[in-house]
Amino acid sequence: MNITVYLPFVASVLIGLAGPIVARRATPAVGATTLAAIVAIGAIGTLWATALLATTFIDDVPFLARAVGPIPVPDSVALVALAALVMALVRMGSVLRRRRRLYRRIHDVIADLETVDSDVVVLADARPDAFAVPGRGTARRRRNEPRIVLTEGMLAALDNPQKSALLAHERAHLRDGHHRLRAAADLAAAANPLLIPARNTVGFLCERWADERAVADVGSRRLVANAIATAALAQAADARAAAAGRQVALGFNHLGTVDRVAALHRPPASALRAATFLALVAGVCILAADVNATGELLEIVRRLI
Amino acid sequence: MDAPRHERRAAGALESEVLAVLRSVDHPLKPSEIQSAVGRDLAYNTVHTILTRLQQKGDVARVPYGGRIGYAPVKSAAQVAAERMREALQSSDKHDEILQRFITALSPDEEDALRAALDGDRRL
Q1: B32 is a domain residue
Q2: How would you write the pLDDT of chain A (305 residues) with one tens digit per residue?
Q3: Could you tell me if B19 and B54 lie in one domain?
Q4: Residue B4 maps to a domain
Q5: CA distance A172 to A217
């Protein structure tokens, strides 16, 4: 097994480092979709390469060693690969489970609320909050419909045009299936931690994408920017009031509220071909490396038979 | 040894039944009304004990009602649902990564930047 089996790992480092920068320069829709796709390919590539490396352990099994002959991969590498593979699969399983559990719990609460048949659910909670939760079940057997959850605190913080902007934003998430892109990126990052920065950018770009959709719906960049800023400040004020007198560590994350508002203060970006091009090159490299290494594995298997 | 534990569990079940009755209407209820709504041959004294316990917990409040004392739930079903939602969200420390959330926590610098963006037309 030659050096190309390691190529997917090199490509993942590149995707992790360059992917976010290039994708942020494209329109959010192109950037989010392309980056999520390339991150998924990167994860599949590294998983497969890891699995191949792990199988090189067979040249140490006494009665197979003679048939196979020595494979030029150190045993230590094969061992590390095996451990990494197991860890990756465990992490991916927990990502899937966590996601399913959270969706189920949220839908359980929604189901108990006696709401009129609407895709918007309002909670009697003074804390400003808003999120979209995708439906559950398959298209044929729907268990729960997708819903937008708002709190009374959020409704009180926004004026009517801002509320329309918020609803347009959340509906865009559901309509464009952003949760699928984010789930794919999340799984990929669980499979390969080198992809975590790119995963975070997919999350940010999905928010940006929904913001631009909201702009198209309400017809004003400034209005959407103001809705985000107003909602974020109301939530921050509420969090500060709740934390008064106590030392509470507030979690910051990478979904970049300020960056989103700043982007809305600028004119819309034009699609960047470079992002697609870069993704294509990286994807081909990873696939070629995997095919090459797979060919070598098949050769080893043939020698066995 | 088993008897007291059994009794306590039964009391907990009764408490939630009484709460459910109080939440199902949008006005306070007299103990006798609660008694007949819960049914199950509940003694008036038992209802009274449950109401006192619920009041101590802060789940129900005594309010004047029709010239007598009525009881009303302190938390509505909607508030309970909101609390359950909060618990559901807090059950996963990764919920920000899973849910499509409109906004997330800000640092003080970010707050200043947003306030400036709202106040004037200053570019971020």
Answers
A1: yes
A2: 566 778 788 888 888 888 888 888 888 998 899 889 989 988 998 998 899 888 877 766 666 666 666 666 777 888 899 999 999 999 999 999 999 999 999 999 998 886 667 889 999 888 899 999 999 887 788 888 899 999 999 999 999 999 999 999 999 999 999 999 999 999 999 999 999 999 999 999 999 999 999 999 999 999 999 999 999 999 888 887 766 544 444 444 556 888 899 899 888 876 666 666 666 767 777 777 777 777 777 777 777 66
A3: yes
A4: no
A5: 10
Together in a domain, B59 and B37: yes
B116 touches chain A (CB under 8 A): no
Q: Which domain holds residue B108?
A: 77-122
What is the reported pTM? 0.76
What DSSP letter does each residue of A85-150 carry, written as one string?
A: HHHHHHHHHHHHHHHHHHHHHHHHHHHHS---S-SEEEES-SS--EEEE--EE-SSSEEE--EEEE
Residues 6+ apart with CB under 8 A from B5: none
B112 touches chain A (CB under 8 A): no
Same domain, residue pair B32 and B58: yes
User: Where do we find the tokens 């590498």?
Assistant: A77
Per CB-CB distance under 8 Å, the chain A contacts of B117 are 225, 229, 261-262, 265
CATH number reported for the structural domain that contains residue B55 in this entry: 1.10.10.10
Query: What's the domain count of chain B?
Result: 2
Look up the ipTM and state it: 0.74
Q: Tell whether A231 is within 8 A of chain B (Cβ).
A: yes
